[in-house]
DNA sequence: GCAAGTTGGTTGACATGTCATCGACCGTAG
DNA sequence: CTACGGTCGATGACATGTCAACCAACTTGC
C-alpha cells in the first residue's frame, strides 16, 4: 500500500465541480422535462434515438448498445413505454430471437413536442453559459475520456476478465 | 411555438460527449469501487463527507444539503449503511427533532481502505487524461454552471414557484 | 404559555435499475 | 442433420431512489 497521489487543489476543484454539476444539471433537466412534456430523461433518450433513425425502428440490442444500457434495463423500460403507447414491439424478420422497437405516432408526437423545450433547457443551463473555447474543450476532453473507457466497456460486454 | 435554436455541430459534440462520459465513467468507477472496496458510490460519498468533518459526525440535514440529496434518500440510505455497521445515528443535543450521523470505526476503516484506490481510478480514467488547461477549464466551467443552478435549487427547497 | 405554522426526520408505496437466470433461436463443427 | 456453445430478449427477485404523508419538536405572535 503506497501513498497515492491525491488530487491537488485544481484537480479537486474540477472533480468536485463535475460531480456537483452532474447532479444539479440532471435534477433540473429532469424536472423541466417531466413538467413540460411528461417524459423522464430515459424516455426522452429512447424516443430521441428512435426518431433519429431512418425507419423509426431499431433492434433492441442495437438501441441498447447506442444508449449504453443493459438489455435488461431496456427491456423493462420499453415495457413501461409500451404501456403508455409510446413505442411498440415487432418481430424481427431477420432473426427469430430478436425484436424491433418502433416509434408509434404518439411517441413521435411526444418527442417532437418535447424536443424544443429540452434543447432550450440544455442551452439555458449549460451550453449558453460556456464560451466557444470551453465548448470546444469540453467536446475534446469528453471524447478522449470516452475513447479511453469505451474499449474496456465493450470488451467487458463479451467476457469478464 | 417558435423554431428553437438547435445545437450546432460543436455544441452537439460537447453535449453528447458529456453524457457519454458521464455514463461510462460512472459505470467504471462504480464497478471498481464495488469490486475493490465493497462500497457503492453513494456509500463512498457519505463516508467521505463524514470523514472530512472534524468530529466525524454531522446533522442529517447538513449532510443532505452538502450532498444535494433529499432527506428521504439520506434517511433510507443511512438505514442500510447502519445495518452494515458503517455509521450510527445519535440524538441531537441541540434540537430534539434532529439526529446526527457518526462514522463507526468500521466506517472509518472502510473509507480509508477505499480512498487510495478510488482516487487512483479517478486519475486513471479522468484526471490524468486531461491537460492542465483542460483541468482548469473544467473547474471553471462546472463551477459557473453550478452557481447558475444552485440558486434555483436552494430556492426550490423552500417553496415551489 | 399556547395555538398555528414550520422544520427535521421517518416511513410506506411505488418507480426505476441491476443481477442472475431462462427459453428460444442462431451458427458451426462433426 | 444434430449437438453444442453463444446470443437475444424476457422475467423475477432484489437494491435503490422518489414522492407524499406523517409525527414530533421547534418558533413565533398573541
CATH superfamily of the domain at 24-125 in chain A: Winged helix-like DNA-binding domain superfamily/Winged helix DNA-binding domain
Radius of gyration of chain A: 19 Å
* Run of helices and strands of chain A: HHEHHEEHH
The secondary structure category of chain A is mainly alpha
At the first level of CATH, the class of the domain at 24-125 in chain A is Mainly Alpha
Q: Which protein chains are joined by the largest interface, and how many residues does each one contribute?
A: A-B, 54 and 53 residues
Major sheet size, sense and barrel closure of chain A? 3 strands, antiparallel
Helix content of chain A: 55-70%
Helical segment tally of chain A?
A: 6
Report the mean per-residue pLDDT of chain A as an integer.
94
Total DSSP E strands of chain A:
3
How are the strands ordered across the major sheet of chain A?
1-3-2
Describe what you observe in this structure.
Chains A, B: This is MarR family transcriptional regulator. Chains A, B: It comes from Micromonospora solifontis. Chains A, B: InterPro entries: HTH_MarR-typ, MarR/SlyA-like, WH-like_DNA-bd_sf, WH_DNA-bd_sf. Two copies of one chain form a homodimer. With 161 residues, chain A is mainly alpha-helical. Chain A has a domain of 102 residues: Winged helix-like DNA-binding domain superfamily/Winged helix DNA-binding domain (Arc Repressor Mutant, subunit A). The first copy, chain A, has six helices and three strands, in the order ααβααββαα. In chain A, helix 1 packs antiparallel against helix 5 and helix 2 packs across helix 5. The mean pLDDT of chain A is 94. The interface between A and B is large, with 54 and 53 residues. Chain A binds a DNA duplex (30 and 30 nucleotides) through helix 3 and helix 4.
